[in-house]
Amino acid sequence: MQFQRIFVPLAGVALVVAAYRSYGWAGVAVATGALVMWMLLHFSRMMQILKRAANRPIGFVDSAVMLNAKLRPGVTLMHVVAMTRSLGELKSEKNSQPELFRWSDGTQSHVTCEFHQGKLRKWSLVRPDPDAPPDAELGVSQEP
What we know:
The chain has 144 residues and is of the alpha+beta class. The chain folds into two domains: 2-53, no CATH class; 58-126, 2-Layer Sandwich (Beta-lactamase Inhibitory Protein, Chain:B, domain 1), CATH 3.30.1450.10. 50% of the residues lie in helices and 16% in strands. The chain has helices spanning 2-23, 25-54, 64-70, 77-84, 134-138, and strands spanning 89-90, 99-104, 110-116, 119-126. Strands 1-2-3-4 form a four-stranded antiparallel sheet, with helices on one face. A hairpin with a 5-residue loop joins strand 2 (99-104) and strand 3 (110-116). The protein is elongated.
């Protein structure tokens, strides 16, 4: 994560400097315009992902099993939100590392993901016991 925080701005500055040395102020204008366009594309994608996620319940996914199959180490939290089209339910303390998020589906299966510095480290799928009565899964006790 630190590498990207340092490398991307340095690459932008190097691009502008190289454009100035090669084409003068016209090159700076083109390079700056390209960098602004690149930033706007990323911002637009992020806003579209969050707009879709805003229309769904927090922590809900269509299929926890399919989400489990699609996850890969190193993907960003934004990528997982884009896959699920839902914000994850925060299970760790706010602003602490690692962050734990959970996505559940209608069958009480859930995937808990651990993110460190915004990158997925590990995840686990929990599926309910199919032989257990439905009330036991929800933690509801029946009194006589």
